[in-house]
Structure formats: C-alpha cells, structure tokens
Design brief:
Layout (H helix, E strand, L loop, with lengths): L2 E6 L2 H12 L8 E4 L2 H7 L2 H12 L6 H8 L3 H13 L4 E2 L5 E2 L4 E5 L5 H7 L1
Parallel strand pairs: 1-2, 1-5
Antiparallel strand pairs: 3-4
C-alpha cells in the first residue's frame, strides 16, 4: 500500500528528512511537510478530503465538472478546492485537465507543538 504522508514538523526536522531522502535512506519519499498545524488543517478540510476519497475510489482521473457533479457541489467551489489540493501537491493534473490521486491512501501526522519547540522553551 502506497501512502502519501502529510506531516507537521519543524523546519530543521524537515531538512534532515529531505537530506535522508536525497541520500537514498528512505525508499519512497511520499511526504508533504507543513511547518504549522494550521496549514495542514487548512489544506485538509472535510470537503477536500471528500474529493480525495472520490478520486481514490473512482475509475481513473476526473474533470472538475465530474467531481462537482458527483459531490453535488458548484463547479467554481469544487474547482477552488481541487486547485488548493493541486497547489499543495496532494493531487495531480493529467494532460487532459483531469485530476487524479496517485496513492492508495493518506496518513496524517500532526504534532503540536513540535518537540524542538518545547525543548527550546524549557
């Protein structure tokens, strides 16, 4: 099962993880990092997770019109949410302007505050 991992982490920890990925220490670098929990929560709203669920279980990539119709949402609002997921690199867009999710699922790791932050304030 290939999961996309969305994770909150400090900038230093994110840099260490990226260095390890570049050095080949992680076999599948399917991570998207958020420095603040607010960014992760703002990106993964209930409506957007519903879109990801649809892309996960539907047959192949879908246009914005198809997503809007299946979820009974307006095209403009569905397009706004799809673009936010695209900008965050959670979903992709194919050559035919169809949105797709290329993983089998998502794991979300949210930590607040970051462990380095608590140590620094002690």
């Amino acid at each position: 099962m290939r999961l996309l991992i969305l994770e909150t982490t400090s900038f230093g920890a994110m840099q260490e993880r990226m260095d390890a990925i570049l050095d080949g220490q992680h076999p599948d670098p399917a991570f998207i990092f958020f420095e603040a929990p607010e960014g992760l929560l703002r990106t993964t709203t209930a409506k957007r997770m519903e879109m990801i669920r649809l892309l996960l279980h539907d047959e192949g990539p879908m246009t914005v019109e198809a997503v809007a119709m299946r979820l009974k949402r307006g095209r403009m609002m569905a397009g706004h949410d799809l673009e936010a997921l695209l900008e965050s690199e959670i979903i992709d867009l194919d050559r035919d302007a169809r949105y797709l999710f290329e993983f089998d699922g998502i794991r979300i790791r949210l930590q607040f505050p970051h462990s380095e932050h608590r140590v620094a304030q002690s």
